[in-house]
Specification:
Largest sheet: 3 strands, antiparallel
Oligomer: single chain
Number of domains: 3
Number of strands: 5
Strand content: 15-25%
Bound molecules: zinc ion
Shape: flat
Length: about 250
């Protein structure tokens, strides 16, 4: 079972101490350090221009020489940066499209040969890239024994993910002060700046959605005939669904 560990990066407890063995294979000889990176990225609209900010932190991770490179590559593929998240998003979309196609082929709704002949090559390439990317991500999950996940948005706390539970326990024991609850635990949710930012964004989206939802029927009403004296006026402004229905009826 994998375990995530929160580590306070400030507080004067010195560099991290690593258990003297490889987190992947357990070898205790030929150990080397590789660079693990965590970053905090933010995009904001300030003075009419998009500002992209990135703050990253590097620390050395100890593994055996044989597993260092794979661990470093795997961690980079699974990194939380915006670029990598976008790439992974494209891979997941491609894979979903592939799975829908497989379903259509299996049920006989579409013929594979006909699909291959009528589909533009770039789209076929995108589907193939999706399978390759998925394979690469599965490989990354398998080889990454120690993965720097992220920097906490509110504190100088790095989050690391260990594939091996026992190794994670030994790591915490070796760095008992940096991983102590007092230094690394997140503050209660309403004391976090990121919580209020999220609330603000949700409120803004809800406000825009509300405005949009109420703007549409009004435009029909403006074109509606002047108010009759009967009490069924409130039914004289048809909603979008009613309009679509009447269009279908009169169209045929
Ligand atoms: Zn190893």
């Amino acid at each position: 079972m994998a375990e995530t560990v929160r580590i306070a990066m400030t507080g004067g407890h010195g560099p991290l101490k690593w258990p003297q063995r490889c987190p992947r294979c357990g070898a205790s000889s030929d150990l080397i350090y590789f660079d693990g990176r965590v970053a905090r990225e933010s995009v904001s609209l300030g003075l009419g221009v998009w500002r992209f900010r990135r703050y990253s932190l590097t620390f050395s991770i100890l593994t055996c020489r044989r597993h260092a490179l794979a661990n470093e590559l795997g961690a980079a593929l699974l990194a939380r940066g915006m670029v990598m998240m976008l790439l992974r998003g494209l891979i997941y979309i491609s894979l979903s499209l592939s799975l829908i196609l497989v379903f259509l082929f299996a049920t006989g709704a579409r013929a594979p040969t006909e699909f291959a002949h009528t589909t533009p090559a770039p789209f076929l390439g995108y589907l193939v890239a999706g399978w390759c990317g998925t394979g690469l991500l599965l490989w990354a999950r398998r080889v990454t024994a120690v993965r720097p996940v992220r920097l906490d948005p509110d504190q100088d706390v790095a989050v690391l993910r260990f594939a091996d539970e026992k190794y994670a326990r030994d790591f915490k024991k070796a760095n008992s002060k940096a991983t102590s609850k007092a230094l690394s635990d997140p503050p209660i949710f309403f004391a976090r700046a990121s919580f209020w930012k999220t609330v603000l964004v949700i409120a803004l989206v809800a406000f825009i959605a509300h405005k949009v939802a109420h703007a549409t029927p009004q435009s029909h009403c403006e074109r509606a005939p002047p108010r009759p004296r009967s009490s069924d006026y409130y039914w004289s402004c048809p909603g979008p669904a009613a309009l679509a229905n009447s269009a279908r009826v009169t169209g045929r």
